[in-house]
Amino acid sequence: MTMCQCDQTTDECGCTLELVWDEDLNATALTGGASPIRIGPAVNLLPHQLLALAASSSLMTSFLELAAATGVPVEGYVSSARLRAGANGEPELALTPCVVVSSENDGRLVAGLWPEAVRYSRTLGVLRDRLRIEPAVRVASPT
Fold this sequence. Notes:
By secondary structure, this protein is of the alpha/beta class. The chain has helices at about 45-70, 105-110, 115-120, 120-125, and strands at about 5, 10-15, 20-25, 25-30, 35-40, 75-85, 90-100, 130-135, 135-140.
């Protein structure tokens, strides 16, 4: 059973998330049955890093589900995320995923999945105006 069960008909998630202040600027996140996550300067895991991780993992999950549904085999996936100043000086989140596939044809197919993966993700929908996706596709050379 996953931590959050979503009702697709109402678009509501029954997630239990609690944040408990520990000391100074540190806290523990309790995530409904999963292991607690310590957050703050004492553990070098800050809120903006959690936001970047959430967006990056949401894109990966959405993309890999779509690739599997379309029958495109993905050989590898790696991604980086960074907060930066956008063109207008406002902060934006840039996600740079790189997907490895085994053929040029698969590369063309996955290149078209990125916009759909963003639309498919509720997490990325919240960030839509401040989100930039800069994907790369690599074709693995035969060994």
